[in-house]
Write a structure and sequence with these properties.
This is Flavin reductase family protein. The protein is of the alpha+beta class. 16% of the residues lie in helices and 48% in strands.
């Protein structure tokens, strides 16, 4: 099967945009990712998928913890910074949730401890045991077909 065709098909699925963050020896590391999903409600588990050559893979293996930060529609530049598409000399600020670094202004911040890791194909799947969650108002940043997008505001019918 043509790899580009597969990639284009998968890119047709609209996803939210997250920044995965972890901390090692006082240094915070982050990366933009859309390979994230909820896995279980009881217990509260999530899954992230990282490519085998991602710098973040080893960082999470070493720290044993991470956060998933679901970005708001006004955080596109932040997504691009953590995707390596935009360079900045400014330090990106982080807050903490249950001892894990989180992105301020993200509409959801999910703190996790690594429960397990599975290697499948050229990616590692991390199962995260959720330890805390913070929610904020806002609309999500969306990514589909290689472009950032925003949700259209819902229109309420009036009688």
């Amino acid at each position: 099967m043509d790899g580009r065709k597969f990639r284009n098909a998968m890119g047709s699925f609209a996803t939210g945009v997250t920044v995965i963050a972890t901390e090692n020896a006082g240094n915070i590391h982050g990366m933009t990712a859309n390979a994230f999903m909820s896995q279980s409600l009881d217990p509260n588990l999530i899954v992230i998928s990282l490519k085998e050559d991602a710098h973040m893979l080893k960082k999470i293996q070493e720290s044993g913890q991470f956060s998933v930060n679901i970005l708001s529609e006004d955080q596109q530049e932040l997504s691009m910074i953590f995707a390596g598409q935009v360079e900045t000399d400014e330090e990106v600020p982080f807050n903490y949730l249950d001892g894990k670094p989180v992105v301020p202004g993200a509409i959801a911040q999910v703190a996790c401890n690594v429960k397990s890791e599975y290697i499948e194909g050229d990616h590692s799947l991390f199962i995260g045991q959720v330890t805390d969650i913070n929610l904020e108002d806002g609309e999500p940043l969306i990514f589909s077909k290689g472009k950032y997008r925003k949700l259209e505001k819902a229109v309420t019918a009036t009688s």
